[in-house]
Protein 1
Amino acid sequence: MGKTIVCRCEDVSLEDLEEAFEAGYHDIESLKRYTGFGTGFCQGKSCTAHAARFLSALVGGDDVVADPPRTRPLLHPTPAARFMNLSEEGQEGEPADEEDREDE
Amino acid sequence: MKDRADLVIVGGGVIGLSLAYNLARLGFTDVVVLEQGYLCFGASGRNGGGVRQQWSTEEHIKLGRQSIDIFRQLSRDLGINIWFRQGGYLFIARDKQTTNELEKNVELQNKMGVPTRMTGATEAARIVPGLSTRDIEACSYNPDDGTLFPWPVIWGLARAVSQLGVEVNTFTRVTDIDVKDGKIVKVVTDKGSIATSRVVNAAGGWSWQIARLAGCDLPNKPYRHEILVSEPLKPFLDPMICDLSDGTYFSQTMRGEICGGLSDPDEPSSMSTASSLRFLGRMSASMTRILPRLAAVKIMRQWAGYYDETPDGMPIMGRVEGIEGFIQLNGFGGHGFMLSPAIGKITADWLLRREDHEIFEKYNLERFSKGKVKKETLVIG
């Protein structure tokens, strides 16, 4: 019997998404974690849209598409050797977007 | 959502859910758990999954041992595989003073039945193939420590408590806590209010904000802690490695990835979970110093979560003077997950007055204005 693959890196099928939805995971972040889609080598570049379409069809609305899982570095898997001598020049990521405890 | 409950737990992380789980198993199920995001949103879904018994204080050793005993059975109890694996923990000391401290810790751990032992660099390299022995003064190694995958623990606990009748509400933000005549009366959320006389603050990095809603000032501060994961590799690394010279830790997950992070002494307290290039550089340098063959390993992703830190590195547990029914269960720093099974059990027994525990006196909020506490020194990352 054939099956539809959603995430090729982690071998997550459409059935896996359906099972996760059945288990009560109705947001994209939970669906991602519970099935593991988007957690492999391509970090969701090829599967997030498929999963979002699956979820949108079930829950309706644009929320799923409007608020996809957070994209994190690295853009592409890169050997540790490339960063070994970076530490002192390393720069901070984007600034805090929430209240700063120190400012209190 | 219920509009009334015996107990409301703020925070659907591992501490809150462990408490709910233990309460529910004792028949106390009129409980509502409130989680601001999805399950695994906070530090419970962002940590490295280390579970250890190697500590410098008796309290932590006891909690660690009890927790490992519970984790060992938890896959079966919850009906979900938490990928618990006892590959050990290897602490690396690179100077005499740290070695002396490790020796003292090992003596205390042995006295309490934990089979930790000191090893030289050569023996450590037999436990960890490829370990660079350069500049290693000594190591301590406990083969019974281990690692797990945090996510299924959270899902399993949430499912179990739901089946027992506890209400778990995700995407529900607490906006106020009403206190009348020094007593908790109501929790207000963006999805409605719950009348209750007891609230547990198990909100991790957000605990200080939750406490403030009830008019209580906690000394806790959230610190961003960054972590990364590599591409999956064939299994080769048994223990979690902790380098005490800079707080680096990493292990190999059951998926084969190398997963770990390190301390940053320059990290300020903040509510940021941004990723930094600085961390990527420091971590790459440190992990390849420890295990040079990792230089060729591709790093796949980095992310961050909060350490909920107290001034003495010990948690805040128990009642708050002047606010009846307000219970703290926070300030667990970087080791809330690994101690959560014991914390949940002890707290449930204490709340239901089955068994008292000195921890609720000792680690009470009042200690910061009154007493003295022995600081935990074996804190990583």
Protein 2
Amino acid sequence: MFNYILRRLGFGLVTVFGVSVVVFVVMRILPGDPLIAIFGPEGFTKLSEAERAGYMKDLGLSDPMLVQYFHWMRDIVTGSFGHSFFRSESVAEMIARRGPLTAEIGIIAVALSWIVGIPVAIISALRPNSMSDTFARIISILFLAVPGFWVGMLIVLGLLFWFGYRAPLASASLWADPATNLQIVIGPAIVLGLGQAAYIARMARSSLLEVIREDYVRTARAKGVSGRLVIAFHALPNAILPVITLSGILLGFVLAGSIPVERAFGTPGLGYAMFTAVSERDVFVMQNLVFLYAVVFVLLNIMVDVIIAWLDPRIRYS
Amino acid sequence: MSVSQTTGDLGPVETAPGRGAFPVRAGRVLLTFGRRSPLSAFWGCIALLILAMAVAAPAIAPYEPLKSDFRRMQKPPNERNWFGTDQIGRDTLSRVIYGSRSSLTVAIAAVLLGTTSGAVWGLMSGYLGGRFDLVSQRILEFLQSFPDLILAMAIAMALGAGTGTVIVAIAITRIPFGGRVIRSVVLSLREMQYVEAARGLGASSKRMMFRHILPQCVAPYLILATTHLGVAIIIEASLGFLGVGIPAPTPTWGNMLADSLNAGLIPPWWLVLFPGAAITVTVLAFNLLGDGIRDALDPRLRGAV
């Protein structure tokens, strides 16, 4: 087991390196002048050639690409992540302040997707093609098609329209002010969680239907174990493995999906910071946030792999 | 039984059902599809209608999508503007109709570009194997380490706003999926006996790939492409909503939703409801059509693609 974890972490390190190269290529080498982003197209044309060169030097953008890459890596290792073009706050401070909110949203969303998705899948799989199964499938197909941020906008609009309620816009930490914090987090978490629950329900249903056909489940039935117990203790543990793997992939959807959803709710989380960075064309912030999101995604997937290996010895020993 | 008799027996087969002119055959296939999965056929028709709406937008739209009428600003739905007007008096219905143009153009172009190049890559790396496969797998893994919206955002931002950049940004996020799926199909095909037989007969690498392996990849590719259409539409709308999509005056569903947030403290409900509903219906249509095509072409792929 220990060896397996080490091996996965080794592969993860290679992936993180590859990811950093991709981010660097996308943000720095693709055409597009960062000075245009800072000063705007008009301000840019007013700068003299010498001024442009000076700014580029100050920002460390006139160094060779390889040197720039090493500087960036050094910034990451020392934990400073560089500065925004437009704000005094360093990217590291921003992550520390806004990150917890988005993490909370992600955790609640995943928990919610399991709490809703698995029971729905069990109901569906117990009587395939019954009324309740068809209903559950129609709902999940609908949820797969609805953009989360639109649902978020509708919820915000509905609450304002009928109840005059709006979630607090100022940030609040879970420990200092749990009530405010919960009001901020709950909306995005529900939207993202229900969106994922549709995927979970779909996957768990087909996986359950496959497992139910296996011999050992029939044996349990023949011994006289009741239908519900067979599902809960015989079928579900085996059917859950692909659902855990899917959950890891879905976490990526939550990370990405939280950007437009946080914008729709006006949540002061990391997703909103990403939106701000993109609309201000803030290259440094964007570069670090994209890298952070990708690293978190890679780590979460390693975690999922380890959990799967822990649950299923066949993978551990192969 | 002589050889001539055998060919004589084959004669009637030429006119048997299933053969005939192409339109007749295609019609028959569609009819069977409709009978076997009526729900998918229905949503397929909706998808076609949306496509027709996009093509014929100038003829259908009651007003110019960019013309603002300052006498009728931010009006709720009424008999003149069925979907109401926005804060500078542009007709929402016309803008929703025109929005289907950018949405579908981007989605179709991104899928044609991204899913296809991914599929070709997967075909080559699955068939050639060896070092090429190893390197390709790593590169695809790096690309797949980004949640797709985030990668699309970064690329769209780096390249600057425009329809072309949005297409490229979404296409790049589609490559790893196409590559992965087609590669796994090719790997299983390679072990098939008919492929081995062809190799035994001395077929060249190119002939094997294009004559024997490629035709078997068409079904998974079609299924993948229809599913990706839905995903691409949602990513395009999200990019528009986040302000890195197709730039402002062009009506897209994402832009309209982003605009509605600027229309005052409480955004008017009609500016939020209709563009989002358009996205949902379109994505639903392509998803269900994709499910139907999957069930019709290859039920084994259920859940895999």
